[in-house]
Design goal:
Helix content: 25-40%
Oligomer: single chain
Number of domains: 1
Number of helices: 10
Strand content: 5-15%
Distance between the termini: 71 Å
CATH class: Alpha Beta
Order of helices and strands: EEEEHEEHEEEHEHHHEHEHEHEH
Length: 368
């Protein structure tokens, strides 16, 4: 049995944490509770990060974030979103990743890395070229793979190759190799991405996983992919550094992941060395119902339940750009770390409630 994570909170008469109080997890201390979420930039070349990433991550670390992630880093070439996305499947990619982790650290933040595989949501055009899915016959495309031969839907309509058990084992080995390289590149916080309809998320969801072998069927079997991936990473990732996970906790579809399933799964994965849970959406289908995208902090209650039931520190994102809201949920000890995506880029790319991104309302002139 692995020993449970010890989270050190502030002590003394002013022990209540706030958004700007330090947070210690295992051997790593964040200077505050604010994390820059991983966000795909489409600016890499041959899986290698460029000066763009050094500039962006360095500026956000210098600006005060406590924890800074570059984008999701692919563990295999077909684990990218597009050919413009970063990877860590080859030692040749380590120098560019080391530059990024170094500038983050030099600016006072903790360098974090998110390892993942896009599965059936990969092989895309870059956004400025339309973001549609490319067939394997295209020079910038590839055969997408998943737990079952079921396309995701909407713009992800191309045939999906079902992974063999041998291929699943290869992916777990790729996670371990990627984790080893991540440590060699200077990253101090590792997150595996099992959300947003990507490969890990689709294994856990019955919407994407209809296998009849040891990796499908009951939720116990559908979680096997996650257990083995986490075990592979835990075996090579230093014990004093946080091993965390972004989990798709709800598909908002009656046939998909329900939140009770996610609470159970996080409790199971805690026994496999999980130190922290980053709570997000499943996104394993376009057919989502009653998603409260117009509500500030709509995932906070779910994260707080995980924290209380599983007794594991948690982070959360989604409409938390208002500083007063982010501070309040830390002070109330509902979550431990706030993840900011769009507010970190100053982009209003998705509709949301007024002020959810951290800007005051804008008065627009009335046209006569």
């Amino acid at each position: 049995m692995l020993s449970h994570t010890v989270v050190q909170q502030p002590t003394g008469p002013d022990a209540m944490p706030d958004l700007f109080s330090p947070f210690t997890l295992k051997g790593v201390t964040l200077r505050n509770r604010i994390a820059m979420s991983p966000m795909t930039m489409y600016r890499s070349v041959d899986g290698k990060m460029t000066d763009f990433h050094v500039m962006l991550m360095g500026s956000r670390a210098a600006g005060g974030f406590g924890l800074v992630f570059p984008e999701q880093i692919a563990i295999q070439p077909d684990g990218r979103t597009s050919t413009g996305c970063a990877g860590i499947w080859d030692d040749a990619q380590k120098d560019s990743l080391s530059r990024v982790s170094s500038i983050i650290k030099d600016m006072g933040a903790v360098p974090a890395i998110q390892l993942g595989h896009t599965g059936r949501r990969g092989s895309e055009k870059k956004p400025w070229h339309g973001k549609s899915q490319l067939p394997a016959s295209d020079p910038d495309g590839w055969q997408v793979r998943g737990p079952s031969p079921i396309p995701h839907g909407r713009r992800y309509t191309l045939p999906v190759q079902e992974l063999s058990i041998i291929e699943i084992k290869e992916i777990h080995h790729a996670y371990a190799s990627a984790a080893r390289r991540a440590h060699e590149c200077g990253f101090e916080w590792l997150e595996v991405h099992f959300a947003h309809g990507y490969l890990g998320a689709s294994f856990f969801s019955p919407l994407g996983n209809q296998r009849a072998d040891a990796y499908g069927g009951s939720r116990e079997k559908r979680l096997r992919f996650h257990r083995e991936a986490l075990d592979a990473v835990r075996a090579v990732w230093p014990a004093h550094l946080p091993l965390t996970m972004r989990l798709g906790s709800d598909d908002f579809n009656e046939h998909g992941i329900q939140f009770d399933d996610a609470v159970w799964a996080i409790g199971e994965l805690k026994q496999h060395g999980l130190d922290f849970a980053d709570i997000s959406l499943g996104m394993n289908t376009d057919d989502m119902k009653d998603v409260p995208f117009d509500q500030v902090g709509f995932m906070v209650d779910r994260a707080a339940r995980v924290r209380q039931v599983v007794r594991l520190p948690v982070g959360v994102s989604w409409n938390l750009g208002l500083p007063a809201v982010a501070d309040r949920i830390i002070r109330q000890e509902l979550v431990d770390v706030v993840f900011l995506g769009r507010p970190a880029l100053w982009i209003r790319s998705r509709p949301g409630p007024e002020g959810s991104l951290g800007w005051p309302a804008v008065e627009r002139p009335v046209k006569n």
